[in-house]
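We treat protein structure as text, and this decision shapes the records that our systems exchange. We quote a single record here, exactly as it is kept in our systems:
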Amino acid sequence: MEGPTGLWEIDFQLVTVAASSNISEVMYDKARATVRVTFKSGSRYDYYGVSQLIIDEWQKAESSGKFFHKHLRDDAFPCRIIGA
C-alpha cells in the first residue's frame, strides 16, 4: 500500500542471526520478500526476492557473515543501498 509520501510502506521484522563482526542488524519483510541488512559501518542495503527459507537457514547458521556472502551477496539477489 502507498503511504502519504508515495513510497511503499514496508513491514520489517527483526531477524535474530549469529553475531557478526560486520553485520549489525537483519530485518525481513515477508510479504515483499525483502531483507534489510545494516552493517556496522552504517551502510544499509535492501535485498529483494529473498524467500522465508533463506531467512530460516540464516537463523540456523553458525556464521552470519559467511551465510550472507554465500547466499545473499554472492547469489546476486537484486539489491539497493538505502543508507550510508
